[in-house]
Amino acid sequence: MDKDIEKILFTNEDIKTAVQKLGKKLTEDYHDKNPVVVGILRGAAPFMIDLIQAMDCYMEIDFMAVSSYGDDTKSSGSVKIIKDLDTDVADRHVLIVEDIIDSGRTAQALRELFAAKNAASVKICSLLDKPARREVDAKADYVGIDTPNEFVVGYGLDFRQQYRNLPYIGVLKPEVYQD
């Protein structure tokens, strides 16, 4: 897989540092709220596992699967819920954990969904933020690392379900994803 990577943007150490910083801040903000921490499958799974271990507070966890990309490199513009929560979030503080905020459409749709489920609060924590690709006015409340407008994979981020297991975040060579 390494041969498909043009360059490494964020090393495993960079990621660990960002996760520890976020964990400390989230511990402060949620120490007395017993949040429902919602991981967005599949990309956020590695980040979420590391993040909740960096948080020192009571919490529940759950997962959702949503899709706006399919196998493409650009968002389709519509967000499809593939797996909804098992937890009732009415009157609960919800912390959505995302791998990346790109177009912003998924973040916007999830905020609206949890507001409709009467969550007490809805915040988003994203490992990466790519504001250059924003199509709607949506942002994360907590961001680990700002990333340039490049096609990134690794540490949960994928291309056609591959590269998620790389221990770093790198830029995929264009010849790999351009048809």
From TrEMBL:
The alphabetical list of record keywords is: Cytoplasm, Glycosyltransferase, Magnesium, Metal-binding, Nucleotide-binding, Purine salvage, Transferase
EC class, as a word, reads: transferase
The record ties this protein, via InterPro entries, to:
HGPRT, Hxn_phspho_trans, PRTase-like, PRTase_dom
GO CC terms, sorted: cytosol
Which example biological process does GO assign this protein?
IMP salvage
Question: Which family does this protein fall into?
Answer: Belongs to the purine/pyrimidine phosphoribosyltransferase family.
Q: What is this protein called?
A: Hypoxanthine phosphoribosyltransferase
Which organism's genome codes for this protein?
Candidatus Minimicrobia vallesae
| Record lineage | Bacteria, Candidatus Saccharimonadota, Candidatus Saccharimonadota incertae sedis, Candidatus Minimicrobia
Gene designation per UniProt: hpt
